[in-house]
């Protein structure tokens, strides 16, 4: 069992949690965790390399895919140090500053991923609704500006979080619920009024996650309307087929997020293991599966990856 500490000052350390009630099982969870992280790093790095070296993939759709791969890679690397230290080395303690630093990066890259998914939906909307103007609308400058805006929005929204946590006194339990640091998890341990943290956290979620979900919904309503106006059934299927990979990525991000939110809100009677499992699925599943989805669904990427592993030259 990880140690339990109390302090009357601002907490200098937090205690992370592995598998609740089953610390002896942590080591066995480290094996699949290492496999997941290895798959995530390998898959997303391959996507980035293939898009960089293959000239035919220097198009808006694949630039946004590269942003998604870079975000998934960054999100995984943000959680990996404490996840591996807890489950592999049984190091449960994390310093306060390290915890809020990890908290900042996890929330920031979570917001970036949501924004990139919206940017990819905009790409599909322009490609289907304005195919003749696709290249003139989504120029390199526009794509760069969209990427910078997505990153800046998330950084600005999350930046106050470490300062809001830093001001709180912690004089009770310092035991976090997961093997990584989240704002809402650390906030519950404070022995002071946390209404400012709660209100700001809610506003940040509305500003990023809820707003992005609404934009995604509207985008696909417009896309479906445009597809229904296509006369040829074959062309309709072809147009929708270009959106399937993105739809899978959206589901991989939002379904675990909604599931974790519902369990956190209505599943307080459930085993802590269920809460831990859902939190880990939300954090680990999209970065692992997004490269797989796009590799399987995108012929150009699949062909180049096969050529790389078969030793063939990546032709222009």
UniProtKB/TrEMBL annotation:
It is found in: Cell membrane; Membrane. It holds the Pfam family 7tm_4. One of its GO terms (biological process) is cellular response to lipid. Residues 43-294 form the G-protein coupled receptors family 1 profile domain. The chain crosses the membrane at residues 27-50, 62-84, 104-122, 134-159, 199-223, 244-267, 273-294. One of its GO terms (molecular function) is G protein-coupled receptor activity. The keyword Transmembrane applies. Gene3D superfamilies: Rhodopsin 7-helix transmembrane proteins. Keywords: Cell membrane, G-protein coupled receptor, Membrane, Olfaction, Receptor, Sensory transduction, Transducer, Transmembrane, Transmembrane helix. InterPro entries: GPCR_Rhodpsn, GPCR_Rhodpsn_7TM, Olfact_rcpt, OR51/52/56-like. The keyword Transmembrane helix applies. GO terms for cellular component: plasma membrane. It is a multi-pass membrane protein. Putative odorant or sperm cell receptor. Belongs to the G-protein coupled receptor 1 family. This is Olfactory receptor. It comes from Phyllostomus discolor. The gene is LOC114498882.
């Amino acid at each position: 069992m990880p140690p339990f500490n109390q302090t009357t000052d601002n907490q200098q350390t937090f205690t992370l949690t592995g598998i609740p009630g089953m610390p002896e099982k942590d080591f066995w969870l480290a094996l699949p965790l290492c496999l997941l992280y290895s798959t995530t790093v390998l898959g997303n790095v391959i996507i980035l390399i293939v898009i960089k070296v293959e000239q035919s993939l220097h198009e808006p759709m694949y630039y946004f895919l590269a942003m998604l791969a870079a975000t998934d890679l960054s999100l995984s690397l943000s959680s990996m140090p404490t996840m591996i230290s807890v489950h592999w080395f049984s190091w449960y303690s994390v310093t306060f500053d390290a915890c809020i630093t990890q908290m900042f990066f996890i929330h920031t890259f979570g917001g970036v991923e949501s924004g990139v998914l919206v940017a990819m939906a905009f790409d599909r909307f322009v490609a289907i609704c304005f195919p003749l103007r696709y290249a003139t609308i989504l120029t390199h400058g526009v794509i760069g500006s969209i990427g910078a805006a997505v990153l800046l929005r998330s950084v600005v929204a999350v930046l106050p979080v470490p300062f809001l946590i830093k001001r709180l006194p912690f004089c009770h339990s310092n035991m976090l619920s997961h093997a990584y640091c989240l704002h809402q998890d650390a906030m519950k341990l404070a022995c002071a009024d946390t209404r400012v943290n709660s209100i700001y956290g809610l506003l940040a979620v509305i500003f990023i996650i809820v707003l992005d979900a609404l934009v995604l919904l509207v985008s696909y309503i417009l896309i479906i309307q445009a597809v229904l106006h296509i006369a040829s059934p074959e062309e309709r299927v072809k147009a929708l087929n270009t959106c399937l990979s993105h739809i899978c990525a959206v589901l991989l991000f939002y379904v675990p997020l909604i599931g974790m939110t519902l369990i956190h809100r209505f599943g307080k009677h459930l085993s802590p293991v269920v809460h831990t499992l859902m939190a880990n699925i939300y954090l680990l599943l999209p970065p692992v599966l997004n490269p797989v989805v796009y590799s399987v669904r995108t012929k150009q990427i699949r062909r180049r990856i096969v050529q790389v592993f078969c030793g063939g030259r990546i032709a222009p």
